[in-house]
Amino acid sequence: MKLDEVQQAAEEQFARQSHRYGQGHILENVEDVRVAIEPLKLPPGSRVLDVATGAGHTGLFLASLGHNATLADLAQPMLERAKEAATKRGLNVLTRQHPAEQFPYEDGSFDLVTCRVAAHHFSSPESFIRETARVLPTGGYFLLIDGSVEDDQSEAEEWLHQVEKFRDPSHQRFLTPRDWSRLCEASGLKVLQAPLAPFKQPDLNWYFDTAATSPENRKQVLELVAHAPQSARDLFRLGEEAGKIVWWWQRLSLVAVKR
Ligand SMILES: C[S@@+](CC[C@H](N)C(=O)[O-])C[C@H]1O[C@@H](n2cnc3c(N)ncnc32)[C@H](O)[C@@H]1O
To answer: Which structural domains are found in the chain, ordered by start?
Structure first.
């Protein structure tokens, strides 16, 4: 598997931090996935690919609904965490190690492709969407959940980008709903919905620890927090609760269908 520089950085970061993403992580709550896929009425036994599965919260939830789930990630230790969790829960899943930008599957192999809280690390969102569209048959679904920033908020978006980059240098960029929708439409995916919902970052120190942020970079983030522009303060509801620095991401939940 030949990785580009961005993929390599993500692989190293998440291989090192895989123990942080299992039980107790805020991603364990998959209510966002449940709500997004419920209207799709996928019959049990549907073929599902969960891209950048991490510790497997999304893919394992889909397997628990009786779907035939393939869990893919760049980082082998993450796939091991997902396998362990599957065994614990008595779920049968397939794990595959590959990047989100190039899939080792035939055209039309899956009824649903999901990707949750990972796409902001990808070196090429364009290739990821193109590959997603390729492995879906006509009528197949795509669910993308990721941090985002509403359209036309460039100052707040740039602030959050810098915060995320210092916190975890393998971060690439949060795309707006309009950016993602354009990429989908260009690859033959019709966007059915792309709402943003607030999602809490509950404690900046916890967030640093999750990524093993260096002391120097923590200082940089604290500076950015101290001097955040009003647009970012308002949009992300940046504040303090019981001595903890908190904010609310804008989380995109995009559902599309292959034309
Ligand atoms: C926050 S975790 C994903 C969480 C998971 N989807 C969930 O719902 O709990 C991010 C994952 O993205 C993976 N990743 C980052 N860049 C990737 C890429 N280019 N291709 C595949 N996986 C990637 C990382 O290895 C990591 O496991």
So the answer is: 5-152+170-200+249-258 (3.40.50.150)
